Description:
This protein has a domain at about 30-100: Sandwich (Jelly Rolls), CATH 2.60.120.10. The chain is built from no helices and 11 strands. It has strands spanning about 1-5, 20-25, 30-35, 40-45, 50-55, 60-65, 70-75, 75-80, 85-90, 95-100, 120.
Amino acid sequence: MKKFPLLEKLEFRDDGPYAQPLWVDEHSRILRFMLKPGQSIDEHRSPRSPFYVVVLQGHGIFTGSDGVEQKVSTNTFLRFEPGENHSVRALDKELVFIGFLEGFADTPPTQPGGLLGRSEEEG
């Protein structure tokens, strides 16, 4: 088992949101997103995979392909369909969420936890 502390060593950048890879292999990508208040990620989509989101800290406005803005906070799970346009904007607090994507057979693998530092391995 590998264990990653999700709310430690957070890195917020002045020049915009930061998407930090926690795990990348031929089957999936897991990214930790960190946004300062007011920062946003413009509308985009993941054409081949659903995009799963788990909000860990803060408040944000998430918008799906229907264009409806929804205020989302800690302990919320979201799912966007493959190809569904979506965007996010951090509100009054720092926003941290984890994004999960599937099916990346053409992506070269990297070391798990590469930018987070070493994971804690347990038996």
